Amino acid sequence: xxxxKFVKKAKQQDERNDFAELEDxxxxxxxxxxxxxxxxxxxxxxxLRMSDLTSIKLYSADSLPALQQEYRMPEEFFVVATRExxxxxxxxGKVYTAVHGAGEWEKELLFxxxxxFLENIIDQIKL
Length: 127
Known about the structure:
Layout: H1 2-13, E1 18-20, H2 24-27, H3 32-40, E2 42-49, E3 55-58, H4 64-71, E4 78-83, E5 86-91, E6 94-97, E7 108-111, H5 114-124
Antiparallel strand pairs: 1-2, 2-3, 3-4, 4-5, 5-6, 6-7
């Protein structure tokens, strides 16, 4: 399973990467593309070093509302992670990023699905 493989690889990189199960009541507030992942592996404290020497930080479900407010993104953008401080967000099931602090949000498509995003991390994580 993809989520199991993702968690294993994250912990293999750094055993301090911590995941927890999520209660159903909390997961219902998450958008569909990320709900299954968070129900299986809520990233409590996860920061991943990538092969290009950048890092991706995933946020726990309970910290996501504050993250949305911090980035002041349009409501249809749902931030789930950051890469070097730039938000990684879901819109209509696709994964985007945008440069933080550049004024208006000019989104850049990264992946066509959240699962594709996770698969890319698995492939690009630096061990």
